Amino acid sequence: MGFAARHATAAVLLAATAGCHAARGGSATSGTLVITHAVIPASPADAEASAFLVVENHGSAEVTLLGATSPDADSIQMHRVIGGQMQPALHVSIAAGSDVRFVPGGYHLMLAGLKRPLAIGDTIRLELRFEPGGAVTVRAPVLNYTDAVSDLPSR
């Protein structure tokens, strides 16, 4: 391939990938469970922050997310926004072959009693507890809000 052809090919590849980037969120896999897009938007509140992610169930049976913990927070609560109101979710069921998205305006995790203020660039370890399936650990980067939610799939 000649010089001009190589540069034309490089220009086409550059144009095709412009605006594309790797997902910024953390991910983890355990058995048939796949966690993707795990992110924590930087919060102006020093004591709490929300976490977003996607839980995919590639198995043939329903699984239930029972809760989550983190060494960086006193507790993590699951919430769901219904009719503009945030309500606690004691557990979240994920049907076989489907996913549940923890996104703004829907399900989300609320980290309460943060051990330290979170800064952009930090990484927070979240341990999600499933039945069946046990615990799955995922590392969620702390990003500014726009970057945190830009890669999340919509509800």
Strand composition percent? over 45%
Which regions have little confidence, pLDDT < 50, spanning 5+ residues?
Answer: 3-22
Count of alpha/pi helices: 2
What characteristic shape results from the CA principal axes? globular
Can you say what the CATH homologous superfamily is?
PCu(A)C copper chaperone
Classify the helix fraction into a percent range. 10-25%
User: Order of helices and strands, N to C?
Assistant: HEEEEEEEEEEEH
Distance between the termini: 46 Å
Keywords:
globular, disordered N terminus, Immunoglobulin-like, 155 residues, 11-stranded mixed β-sheet, 2 helices, mainly beta
Question: Would you write up a description of this structure?
Answer:
- There is one protein chain.
- This protein has 155 residues and is mainly β.
- It has one domain (23-150): Immunoglobulin-like.
- Helices cover 14% and strands 52% of the residues.
- It has helices at residues 3-17, 145-150; strands spanning 26-30, 33-41, 48-57, 63-69, 73-82, 85-88, 92-94, 98-102, 107-114, 123-131, 134-143.
- Strands 1, 2, 3, 4, 5, 6, 7, 8, 9, 10 and 11 form an eleven-stranded mixed sheet that branches.
- The protein is globular, with a radius of gyration of 18 Å.
